[in-house]
């Protein structure tokens, strides 16, 4: 059993990670600033699922602590840029492992709001690195992104590829995280593992991502925006497969100065039009399609080479896109009470 800090615990991946870690007997501490990038009620409902007695009013007025009913899970509303409170927390709790998932996510939002990304993803990340160094954390696992690969023709994307040409500031901050982590592993001996997530989806998923946006549009009878006239490919990865991969990394023993970066995807890019077909089948609704050109900052395809993670920890994604979307649409219907 380990004592694990999960940042971004009210977020999509963080919530699922906390849930799995608690089920497998770990002690978990979650932090999140509960920002309003998307509907805060979804974040609060995720916390409720984790046994946190959320007083909505308190959270929305930025009060500090939520009480919890799960004795192995504590939650604190905290921003990664609040260096002082972060240091106090690390010193008091003495975590074994830190899983840093908190970040300003979203490629498209970064096109119009680049500066927001520097605060959470660069300033926030250096605060995490420093707190890990000062408190001799045994392993820092952190979220990078497939977006570091930018626009490239050669597939699948391998960790051995050079990734020097990001096409969004979001991607640039994630690449910066990998560089900063390298310094801390090399100079201070902090073991770090970066995970390049490839389009994660599933129940409790993010409202700004295609599975959610498309499903919502279908149930509201609104047109679906289909970029690059539908000619896009994504390596969609189901949340349970991602969590299996992340916990596999957390369970591994690491040595001082270990520095690793892995792709964590499905190794099976799907055509956008097939993805739309599966959502239609799962929801029983016919989509109205609004074909649009390629968006700035977007890439034509993502396709993960996952050999390295497979060899390291036995990672093996199991969920087909069709099956995963059925799970997602099922959750969406229950959560939003639509049929
Ligand atoms: N979901 C994907 O497909 C995907 C793909 C690539 C990378 N990632 C990365 O994985 C991580 C988790 O993504 P997600 O999909 O769960 O996103 P999410 O937005 O649902 O979760 C991130 C959480 O971090 C919190 N947060 C943001 N800035 C913070 C700060 N400064 N201090 C404290 N908390 C803060 C947010 O409130 C949110 O709850 C992120 O780092 C994201 O960049 C996700």
TrEMBL record:
InterPro entries tied to this protein: Epimerase_deHydtase (IPR001509), NAD(P)-bd_dom_sf (IPR036291)
Entry annotated with the keyword Nuclease: no
Keywords from the UniProt entry: NAD
Ranges where the NAD-dependent epimerase/dehydratase domain occurs: 4-265
SUPFAM superfamilies: NAD(P)-binding Rossmann-fold domains (SSF51735)
Pfam families: Epimerase
NAD in keyword set: yes
PANTHER family in the cross-refs: EPIMERASE-RELATED
Protein name: NAD-dependent epimerase/dehydratase domain-containing protein
Organism field: Flavobacterium pallidum
């Amino acid at each position: 059993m380990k004592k694990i800090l999960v940042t971004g615990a009210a977020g999509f991946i963080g919530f699922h990670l906390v849930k799995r870690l608690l089920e497998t007997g770990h002690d978990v501490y979650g932090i999140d600033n509960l920002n309003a990038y998307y509907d805060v009620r979804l974040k609060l409902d995720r916390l409720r699922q984790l046994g946190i007695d959320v007083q909505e009013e308190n959270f929305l007025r930025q009060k500090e602590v939520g009480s919890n009913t799960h004795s192995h899970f504590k939650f604190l509303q905290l921003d990664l840029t609040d260096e002082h409170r972060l240091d106090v927390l690390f010193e008091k709790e003495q975590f074994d492992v830190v899983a840093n998932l908190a970040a300003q996510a979203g490629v498209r939002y970064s096109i119009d709001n680049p500066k927001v990304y520097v605060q959470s993803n660069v300033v926030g990340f250096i605060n995490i690195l420093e707190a890990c160094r000062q408190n001799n954390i045994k392993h820092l696992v952190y979220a990078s992104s497939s977006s570091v690969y930018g626009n490239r023709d050669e597939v699948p994307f391998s960790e051995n590829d050079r990734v020097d040409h990001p096409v969004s500031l979001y991607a640039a901050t994630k690449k910066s995280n990998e560089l900063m982590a390298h310094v801390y592993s090399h100079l201070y001996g902090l073991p770090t593992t970066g995970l390049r997530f490839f389009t994660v989806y599933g129940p409790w998923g993010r409202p700004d991502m295609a599975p959610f946006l498309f499903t919502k549009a279908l149930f509201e009878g609104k047109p679906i925006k289909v970029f690059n006239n539908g000619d896009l490919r994504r390596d969609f990865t189901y949340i349970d497969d991602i969590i299996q991969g992340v916990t596999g990394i957390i369970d591994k023993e690491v040595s001082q100065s270990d520095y690793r970066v892995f792709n964590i995807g499905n190794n099976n890019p799907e055509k956008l039009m097939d993805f739309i077909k599966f959502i239609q089948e799962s929801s029983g609704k016919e989509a109205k399609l609004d074909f649009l050109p390629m968006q700035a900052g977007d890439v034509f395809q993502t396709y993960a080479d996952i050999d390295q993670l497979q060899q390291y920890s036995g990672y093996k994604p199991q969920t087909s896109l069709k099956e995963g979307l059925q799970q997602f649409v099922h959750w969406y219907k229950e959560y939003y009470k639509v049929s």
